[in-house]
Amino acid sequence: xKTYDIAAYIWPAYTGDEPRTRMFWPxxxxxxxxxxDAVPKFPGHSWPRKPLWGYVNEADPYVxxxxxAAAADHGVNVFIYDWYWYDDRPFLENCLNxxxxxxxxxxxxxxxxxxxxxxxxxxxxxxxxxxQKNVIWKGATDRQGFxxxxxxxxxxxxxxxxxxxxxxxxxxxxxxxxxxxxxxxGMEETAQALKxxxxxxxxxxxxxxxxxxxxxxxxxDLSGVxxxxxxxxxxxxxxxxxxxxxxxxxxxxxxxxxxxGEILTDVKAEWARLESQWDIPYFPHVSVGWDNNPxxxxxxxxxxxxxxxxxxxxxxxxxxxxxxxxxxxxxxxxVNSWNEWTETSYLEPDDLYxxxxxxxxxxxxxxxxxxx
Length: 372
Fold this sequence. Notes:
Elements: E1 5-10, H1 32-36, H2 61-73, E2 78-86, E3 89-91, H3 94-99, E4 110-115, E5 120-121, E6 135-137, H4 143-158, E7 165-166, E8 169-174, H5 177-184, H6 187-203, E9 210-214, H7 236-240, E10 244-246, H8 260-277, E11 285-287, H9 309-324, E12 332-336, E13 339-340, E14 345-346, H10 356-365
Parallel strand pairs: 1-2, 1-12, 2-4, 4-8, 8-9, 9-10, 11-12
Antiparallel strand pairs: 2-3, 5-6, 7-8, 13-14
Helix pairs in contact: 4-6, 8-9, 9-10
């Protein structure tokens, strides 16, 4: 039986153990505070939703043992941890370091990192989120900060026995290309920095580094940060040394304020466009939904409709078909997400669908942790 690597993003904010999170969520439970306080914004709005496992601390290894078991039993065998580097130091590592990596059954689950190098603004603070112009921490990092961050990643994470690799090369995803280029000072400088990162990874004993880029539906504005005309966005991948691309969310490239089934038409077209225009492999992505009203006191437009487990199952079947049609690349599929409750895009069981989304994955892929 063919096996697949089903990789679910993890938003590591469901803990109060990181001191710097108290400015956003003073109750000391991380962003569970916003989930717990969510209210319906209009008649028929499906909030509030409640996690069947409760408002658990995901920096607790016993909690993560439960979550790893549930994920692996249903065919999710990779976690992609959102990883942050703000103010020249890591942020929100507790869920990974103290929860996942100390879980007794961590060998059932691979993991890799996505550097979420976007700016941090008022979005996470429900009291202030209506105004997101205030930047608390910049996501752009200069070369010295970049090297310190990369050394931490190589030494602390790539060396873990269950770090996810492709052909022996650890996978590292980068979220925001513009911030990367801006911080490093231009395209040439970014190419040099990534080349250095690759060389340091090889120096640490790996055959290579697999750099993955998050793609969006539009060309990023690199004006003012690109030190020269380097052609189309699709050529940036090979120019900078990226190995593959994937998405983080459907909302990044299509109108999500409609029925989930209608959205899938655009998703299939987007996959075909990326395959034809990019010179590096695309790994198919499935988003469970979108509704970020839990982060706001007022109404936020843009809500995915009818994203039932059966509807998401159709998206998973599309992703499986794409992987099967590309036998020359690893059968990796990214999913948003394991636990993005404040964006209403999660696999964790809730009081609306129970374990429905996880059961959809098991039905489509039927590949438990023995693919590790």
